[in-house]
Write a structure and sequence with these properties.
Shape of chain A: globular
Radius of gyration of chain A: 19 Å
Family (chains A, B): Belongs to the class-IV pyridoxal-phosphate-dependent aminotransferase family.
GO molecular function (chains A, B): 4-amino-4-deoxychorismate lyase activity
Strand content of chain A: 25-35%
Number of helices of chain A: 7
Number of domains of chain A: 2
CATH architecture of the largest domain in chain A: Alpha-Beta Barrel
CATH topology of the largest domain in chain A: D-amino Acid Aminotransferase, Chain A, domain 2
CATH superfamily of the largest domain in chain A: D-amino Acid Aminotransferase, subunit A, domain 2
Enzyme class (chains A, B): lyase
Strand order of the largest sheet of chain A: 7-8-9-10-14-15
Oligomer: homodimer
Distance between the termini of chain A: 24 Å
Structural class of chain A: alpha+beta
Largest sheet of chain A: 6 strands, mixed, barrel
EC number (chains A, B): 4.1.3.38
Pathway (chains A, B): Cofactor biosynthesis; tetrahydrofolate biosynthesis; 4-aminobenzoate from chorismate: step 2/2
Largest interface: A-B, 62 and 62 residues
Chain lengths: 269, 269
Amino acid sequence: MMARLLVDGRAGETVSALDRGLGYGDGLFETIRFVGADAPLWPRHMQRLRAGCERLHLPPPDPALLLAEAREAASGLDQAVVRITWTRGVGARGYAPPAAVRPTRIVAAFEPPPADPAAQADGVRVRLCALRLAEQPRLAGLKHLNRLEQVLARAEWDDPAIGEGLLCDMADRAICATAANLFAVFDGVLATPALHRCGVAGVARAEILAARPATQVLDIPLAELAGADELFLSSSVRGILPVRELDGRRLAVGPVTRAMQAHWRALGF
Amino acid sequence: MMARLLVDGRAGETVSALDRGLGYGDGLFETIRFVGADAPLWPRHMQRLRAGCERLHLPPPDPALLLAEAREAASGLDQAVVRITWTRGVGARGYAPPAAVRPTRIVAAFEPPPADPAAQADGVRVRLCALRLAEQPRLAGLKHLNRLEQVLARAEWDDPAIGEGLLCDMADRAICATAANLFAVFDGVLATPALHRCGVAGVARAEILAARPATQVLDIPLAELAGADELFLSSSVRGILPVRELDGRRLAVGPVTRAMQAHWRALGF
């Protein structure tokens, strides 16, 4: 498992079996890439976590405390992926939130996935998932703990040659991959799906939108992806991954993708 | 908290912080009313749990083991609500299910909610929730651990005079309450919403459908509820609850509701 864990600030492996994170998926998480003690996208992770707390009516965490705990969990690892889980804590049985919420925080550091220079250079193969994402504006964009759709979608394949699965909504709009966001270049213009109905608004996606403010955020019908000059995925863990094949169709790795990879490296990753 | 807990068969309060039930809501649960050592709807709970495991590709539990553990947890309580949680167990980071799944089982016994003879006799007031349920056929009907919609809906009110909240889908079809199913009587015919797009297919609902095989299972637009002669809610924990007011409109408690309450008592509750 190779995880180092802090639960509510103490070294520990366990949480209460009555935690609402377990009972109802009542909480949020962040998955943060560390390079030594630095997490280049830390402020964006904290921004998303705070925004998620507002939308779920959760008390927000103390970012300074989380950073200290993330560094403690990751200490001794040259590179780490730190997952922070923030739940509504222990509660009585039933959906009604407790009157006095004491959130649970779990900080877990993992070895990152092995570097994959071939995927960075040549791109990954992406399949189209059969599962279609449900539209729920109240939860769209959040990195909450209700992730059965992603689990079912990721279980659709186990061929290690497939790097990711593309998820569409019920109206066959492209939304995101199971654990990454999607970008497409049409006639030289960068675009990424709007995420107000479903999907997770990734921190790497936010970084790209800030770096390329002219990026179009809009509905992208699946059929239109066939006309894209370039496709790439963004992930806070895996960085910028060119897509070299989507559902059997080959794509070239183009200049916008390469520029975004250079931007990513310049961040310190 | 008043809970007695067995985790994987041992008395214990905690689960691994790396359990996929906590990480992704990757699992199922049942909430089962016990009268002494008896759970009149036990076979239906096990049937739903097994069906849920098939749909989520989870190994099924051993019902005899669960029953023994549920009775152990509930022992000493005249009446109990036993929650069984069944997750995909501990896994590595990431959505991909582990190659070898070792499910986690949590059996927790609680004191039941206080008896409410007035609600049974005169009915409960039901409000209309603002939240609309997302349509996800892959998860519809299951009692899975992804319950943020119910948490948000239940957080819409804290007036104890309101007994439940009615949830509709995005097309304004009535689906269910936050923690109960809905039945309506139109011109003497019992009907309940179809749950192939969203909603939880309750065990008490299944009992009613078996007892009244002529019940119509169909789409019920919210607007049509205004023409219902009777409305009631079904819950494995709270039984059959007449609805005396829906979103401000008063209803009488009618003969079909009373017949279903008599059926419920005859089961041993």
